[in-house]
Amino acid sequence: MPNKESIEIEIAKLIVETLSLEDINPSDIDFDNHYSMTVLG
User: pLDDT, tens digit, for every residue of 24-35?
Assistant: First the structure.
């Protein structure tokens, strides 16, 4: 079972890829990253 850090890194990669595809403002990256880490606890 992957450790917590590996999961967070993978999610961060997915977020960055998604933002790149959708051309969302860079300011949204921090919000999404913070949200994901909050959800993971």
Answer: 555 555 666 666
